[in-house]
Amino acid sequence: MKASGWWPPGRDRARNVPVCGWLCTVNGTGSGAPRSGVSSSESGGAGPTPGDRPAPEPGVGSGSYSDPMSEPPAIERASDAPAVLVRSVHRTFEPDTAPVRALRGADLTVEHGEFVALTGPSGSGKSTLLQVVAGLDRPDSGSVRLAGTALDDLSDDELAVLRRRHIGFVFQFFRLLDSMTALENVALAAMIAGAGRAAAEARARELLDLLGLLDKSGSSPVTLSGGQRQRLAIARALANRPTVLLADEPTGALDSAGAAGILELFQRLNAAGQTILLVTHSEEVAAGAGRRVAMRDGRLEPVAVGAGDR
Ligand SMILES: Nc1ncnc2c1ncn2[C@@H]1O[C@H](COP(=O)(O)OP(=O)(O)O)[C@@H](O)[C@H]1O
Ligand SMILES: [Mg+2]
Questions:
Q1: Could you tell me the distance, in angstroms and rounded to a whole number, from the CA of residue 250 to the centre of ligand 2?
Q2: Residue range 20-27: mean pLDDT, rounded
Q3: How far is residue 140 CA from its own chain's centroid?
Q4: What is d(CA 179, CA 167) in angstroms, rounded to the nearest whole number?
Q5: Does ligand 1 lie within 6 Å of residue 39's CB atom?
Q6: What tens digit of pLDDT does each residue of 111-130 get?
Q7: Ligand 2 centre from 300 Cα, in Å?
Q8: Which of 34, 88, 290, 301 could make a disulfide contact with 43, Cβ separation 3.0–4.6 Å?
Q9: CA geometry: angle at 27 spanning 24 and 33, to 5°?
Q10: DSSP code string of 117-142
Q11: How many CA atoms lie within 13 A of 167 on its CB side?
Q12: Does the keyword Iron-sulfur apply (predicted)?
């Protein structure tokens, strides 16, 4: 589906009514999380997920958020609960052919402030796990908690709220809206949450500046390099200061220089407090994360510490 302009279908331009339609899925703000049958790697993502927390005050971007890199994400830390807690999660897809057991008792904990790389062979369930963590797909059994809140028994609407609050999602192929400018792509994320246009654009400018894209504010994503597009997608995913930034092979479509730039960006964000869970096939990227875990046959296994030791 294509957007036909800055305003997505259904938005009242004059009144700035919250968006719905397909963008609600893209941005994790809709009432319906994709369920079964959604390709785990290609389903709509919780991209910018601006949330239900109060909209930024006017003037944001010019003052209080002037250095988002140094400001930890806005998270509710009522307890010491991990950012992400996955326990005994099973997910079986039942296409017309034989059932596919994508997740078979996956367990994963990501603490606040961690940068975790998730590796594993193709088909081992990495994307499915990310979708489940994002609340974009539901497990058949097991439990997923984001910052202490269980997703398990939530309605689709409640799940969307949690997703907006906690998740930013970055995809391998960016999923930007080419008919919008770079600034609009990021600002839309904040506006979906109900932020006023001026505050949303201020936040977008701030993020573009942070990611070295300010001079591309008025450009369409199609005019950007792959690395620049992915930085723009990351800016969008950060628009609402998610508890956790999820990224599914975010360097997979980039050349090695582009990939190195994105890895460095993730490292900077993590150093500033951003929790990150990233799927990658790249040894270099995985080695640059703070911790590595591997998936095999739908389960996680820690990479052996000191595997090279004798
Ligand atoms: N929507 C779906 N319908 C049917 N099978 C699926 C679906 N999504 C994923 N799978 C299957 O589940 C398994 C795990 O997929 P995935 O999580 O995408 O693995 P990875 O990301 O590690 O490559 C694969 O065998 C894949 O074909
Ligand atoms: Mg995948």
A1: 11
A2: 31
A3: 22
A4: 25
A5: yes
A6: 999 999 999 999 999 999 99
A7: 14
A8: 34
A9: 60
A10: EEE--TTSSHHHHHHHHTTSS--SEE
A11: 34
A12: no
Token couple for 4: 């036909």
Close Cβ partners of 181 (under 8 Å, ≥ 6 residues apart): 217, 218, 219, 220
Which residue's structure tokens are 């994002």?
134
Cα separation, 55 vs 40, whole angstroms: 31
Q: Each residue of 214-253: pLDDT tens digit?
A: 999 999 999 999 999 999 999 999 998 899 999 999 999 9
122 lines ligand 1 (CB under 6 A): yes
Q: Supply the pLDDT for residue 69.
A: 47
Ligand nearest to the CA of 132: 1
Which of 86, 89, 97, 100 has most ligand 1 atoms within 8 Å of CB, for mutation?
Answer: 100
Q: How long, in residues, is the chain?
A: 310
Q: List the domains of the chain with CATH numbers.
A: 22-29+38-51+59-68+113-137+155-301 (3.40.50.300)
Q: What is the pLDDT of residues 78-113, one digit of tens each?
A: 458 999 999 999 999 998 889 999 999 999 999 999
